[in-house]
Amino acid sequence: MAGLSSDIQRALQLAVGEANNAYVQSQTRKTSRKKRARNEEPPEKPRKKNKPSEQDQTPASQSPSHTLTNDIHHQDLSGDNNHASSTAFLNAVVAAASATSSDSQSLDVSQFQHHQSYHHTMIPDQQASYLSYPPAHYGFHEVPQFDQPPPHPQPQQLFPGLGGPIPDFQYASNDDILRAIQDIDMSKIATALKTLGDAAAANTSVTSPPPGFVPPAAPNTDSVQALTHAPSTSSGAALNAAPKSTKSSHKRVLDMSLPGPEPSNPEHAHMLANKWMNASKLAELVKSQGLIYKKGKFSAIEEQQLKTAIENFKICRGLSDDQILEIIFQKNEKGKDNTFWSEITTAVPQRPIIAVYHHVRRTFHPKKQQGKWTPEEDNLLKQAVTDLGQQWEKVSERVGRMSSDCRDRYRNHIANRELRVTGPWSKVEEDELTRIVAEMTIQQGKDFDNDVFWGIVSDRMGNRRGRQQCRIKWTDSLSKTVKNEGQKPRWSPQDAYILVHKVDSLKVRDDTEIDWKTLPDSDWNLWSAHSLQRRWLTMKRSIKGYEDMTHQEIMDILRVKKAHLPPSTASMRRRKVTSAASVDDHEPVVDPELVNGGTIAPEAGPSSSVAD
DNA sequence: CGTCAAGGTAAGGGTAATGGTCTGAA
DNA sequence: TTTCAGACCATTACCCTTACCTTGAC
């Protein structure tokens, strides 16, 4: 099948692998739960924090402080029916796609089951797999294997009719794969997968899922009110962790294979989607009824879900794009469709209707994202504020930018412009900022990471520095120096190592789902959430072709890339280093692989402050 | 006329993307 | 010496939440 796109190839691999994974999982669980204990650790060993014993893994025992990993286990264990349904649907997909095959050359999926699973993230202790990823040029074959599990027994094939041999995917070239699948009708596969992807994307009551397809429920990985944040792996655990085996993944920039947020209880879900509750009302319900709702940035997946929901709303009612915009920005009450906001809110579980309202109105605003402000616009804005005051909607009409953008431009760049200083901070300024922050937080028993009002700080700096300047200077520079006893810490390979393991432990579908504030722990807390996020982006962008990879694929590569610590930093892991003065370069070096393999456990948490 | 819910506006806090400079290793 | 990657710093557009206000139904 010449000209088959690589996306289609990957999509097919994914479909088959996913279907078989799902099937094998359900078969495996049905036949013997004991197999689940076959993991990196012997069953009698105490499990890591994030890997509770199997007895813990019932939905009923799920505590509010459950971990993400727990969630995944819960979903997986309790989701036999879901798997069966998903599997049945995938089965139908492939059956439909292969219906036109002229001969029965087909996929022997048992070939894949010897390799590591890209589903590893859903089934942490499941070692069966179908597709190997990434290819050897990433150096995965060089990664030391720890506690290689015994070969996984092979459950019955999901696609017994597709029994022809196929080259081992782990080492096969694309050509081999293509030859093996050449008789499958790729257009049908692609169509079916698109449907599947859309269903997963929508994962909502707005859309009707394909028959038999039950979208899996899932851990929530964003900020969730009233939920103790699922802790990521501790820094100590990260340092002690063996590099995980490779697992395959698939080429979709948004990876929907991991489940999304678990729907709230039906009553709460209805309330969130229909009641316009303000912050205090929400807080009250969190307290009194244990309401769980999501805060923070909308992830790329939520964006997609909303987009799909709006599209469905449009199609169901036969509306045009303009009519949808009229609903979103409706000014008059006449002809108002009150179901719109409630309906699209159901597409993003755990989001309150008010948050969706604000988000969608910004996202769909015709004046959004116009880039840099020109001096002419600045003058127009300045004049408009002089004439109209801070009535941003009116100012917006005159300037031609969104009201919030006008407000931001004014407060951040126009107001007090004559006083504003830019460029590097002087020592005097840094001391002044440190003093002001200390006075406003520490001296009042508050947290200097979270309880600072930056507008006030800027005022107290005489408006010579803006709120954003003050905040960034503090969170990304001065605070870590203060925490580090006056020494400026530098980002080290072990920080990168910890970060990768922590991100990995979150098991998110996409890095936009990460709540970066939850990453630091007591031993590793020098870096602000903002810094960590930027570090992550830097690491991610160091991977060639990262734009076309899913989070899982990026994770796979970084996990290996950052698997080893340079000897010079390995020694530091044996004790907590808090300042440059404490670093002894002559300390014996610990073989990082020994530590990685769990032979040597670090005594304490890692140094989070490797000095120059 | 008071109350309540829906939703519009403003304000405060925060993040993402990007670019420049410096530094150290190859 | 040159080149390059990445650490560090700064800027600024963009985003989310919350408080408060307006409007209309009851």
Number of discrete helical segments: 23
What characterizes the major β-sheet?
2 strands, antiparallel
State the share of residues found in helices, binned by percent.
40-55%
Low-confidence stretches: 1-231, 238-252, 566-612
Q: Determine the N-to-C terminus distance.
A: 56 Å
Question: Could you characterize the architecture of this molecule?
Answer:
By secondary structure, the chain is mainly alpha-helical. The protein has a domain at 6-41 and 51-219. 44% of the residues lie in helices and 1% in strands. It is built from 23 helices and two strands. The chain has helices spanning 6-31, 68-78, 80-98, 174-180, 186-202, 235-240, 266-274, 279-289, 300-316, 321-328, 339-345, 353-363, 375-388, 392-399, 403-414, 427-440, 454-460, 467-483, 493-506, 529-541, 551-561, 567-570, 592-596; strands spanning 223-224, 294-295. Strands 1-2 form a two-stranded antiparallel sheet. The model is unreliable at 1-231, 238-252 and 566-612 (pLDDT under 50). The protein binds a DNA duplex (26 and 26 nucleotides) through helix 12, helix 15, helix 18 and helix 20.
List keywords for this structure.
612 residues; two-stranded antiparallel ribbon; DNA-binding; disordered C terminus; mainly alpha; globular
Task: Describe the protein's topology.
Blueprint: H1 6-31, H2 68-78, H3 80-98, H4 174-180, H5 186-202, E1 223-224, H6 235-240, H7 266-274, H8 279-289, E2 294-295, H9 300-316, H10 321-328, H11 339-345, H12 353-363, H13 375-388, H14 392-399, H15 403-414, H16 427-440, H17 454-460, H18 467-483, H19 493-506, H20 529-541, H21 551-561, H22 567-570, H23 592-596
Antiparallel strand pairs: 1-2
This protein binds a DNA duplex (26 and 26 nucleotides) through residues 275-276, 278-280, 295-298, 330-331, 333, 338, 341, 354-355, 357-359, 361-362, 368-373, 390-393, 402-405, 407-409, 411-413, 422-425, 452-455, 466-469, 471-473, 476-477, 490-491, 516, 529-530, 533-534, 537-538, 542.
